[in-house]
Amino acid sequence: MEPKRVILLPGSVLPAEPAYGALINALGPDVDAVAKDLELYAPDEPPPGWSLDTEIEGVLREADSRGWDTFHLVGYSGGGAAALAFTAKHPERLESLALLEPAWAGSWDWSPAHRQLWEDYDELDLLPPDEFMAAFMRLGVKPDVVLSPPPPGSPPPWMSKRPAGIRAFMRTFKNYDLDREKLASFQRPVFLALGGLSNPVDYGEVAERLSKVFHNFRLEVFEERHHFDPPHRIEPERLAGLLREHWKRAEARHGT
C-alpha cells in the first residue's frame, strides 16, 4: 500500500519543522508527510503583493514537484486559512482537509463580538515590536489562560520576521475573497481541531461557521489546549490517531 500523501502548513509564528516534527513522528513511516514552510517567510520581508493565493501557488509547486496529483492537506492557524483558500480554488487536488484552529474563515456571518475582536487585532498595529507578540497571543486565548513566558536566551533568528508576517496575514484577511459556495461544494471529509482554552469568539466562532458550510464535517475539541500549545505539538499521538481516522473515512468514501 502506498504511503498517505500529506502536506502540512504551519501558522504565522513557528516554522513548519519544529511545529510538526512530533506529529510526523507520531504518524509513522506509512505517511509521507511534508511540513511545508510558508511562502511568506521565504524572503526577509513579506513579498510584495503577498496573499493567500501566494501560499496556494506554493502548495501546488510542492505537490507537483513530488508528482502528487492528489493529497491530504493539513493547516494550522494562518496555514489553516491558506488551506481553506486552497480548497476553494483547487478542490480536485485534495483527498481531505484537516484544519487546526484556522485563523480566519471568510468574511460572512460574523457576530458582533467577532467584529469587535478584529478591531482589537487592528489596534496591534499601534504597538512597538517588543509588545506586539505578547498582545497578539493574549487575544488568542480565554482571559484566564496563563501563557508561558518566552524561553530564556536570545530569540531565534526567524522570530524577527513574525510581526511583519502576522500583519501581512491580517491585511489579506480584510480583502481576500474566500468563496463560501465553492467551499460548500467540497464533498471530501473535513476535520477541525479546536482548543478548549482558545478564545471562543475567535477560533470557536470560526469552527461553528465552518460546520455550517461543509457537509462532511467533524469537530474535535481538545479541552486542555489553546492556540499556543496546540495538539500537534502537545498531544501529537492523539491527533495522529484522529487524522488517521479522518483519512480512512476519505479513502472509504471514494473507494481508494
- Main sheet: strand order: 2-1-3-4-5-6
Shape call: globular
Indicate the CATH topology.
Answer: Rossmann fold
Classify the helix fraction into a percent range. Answer: 40-55%
How many domain units?
1
- The count of DSSP E runs of length 2 or more, i.e. the number of strands, is 6
Give the rounded overall mean pLDDT.
95
State the low-pLDDT regions, or none: none
Kindly report how far apart the N and C termini lie.
11 Å
CATH homologous superfamily caption: Alpha/Beta hydrolase fold, catalytic domain
Q: Strand fraction band? A: 5-15%
CATH class: Alpha Beta
The radius of gyration over CA amounts to 17 Å
CATH architecture: 3-Layer(aba) Sandwich
Number of helices: 10
Order of helices and strands: EHEHEHEHHHHEHEHH
Structural class: alpha/beta
What does this structure look like?
With 256 residues, the chain is an alpha/beta fold. It has a single domain, classed as 3-Layer(aba) Sandwich (Rossmann fold), CATH 3.40.50.1820. It is 45% helix and 14% strand. It is built from ten helices and six strands. It has helices at 16-27, 52-65, 78-89, 112-122, 129-139, 162-175, 180-184, 200-211, 231-234, 236-254; strands at 4-9, 31-35, 71-76, 94-100, 190-195, 217-222. The chain has a six-stranded parallel β-sheet with strand order 2-1-3-4-5-6, sandwiched between helices. β1, α1 and β2 (31-35) form a beta-alpha-beta unit. α1 packs across α10 and α2 (52-65) packs across α3. The longest helix has 19 residues, at 236-254. The radius of gyration is 17 Å and the shape is globular. The relative contact order is 0.16. The mean pLDDT is 95.
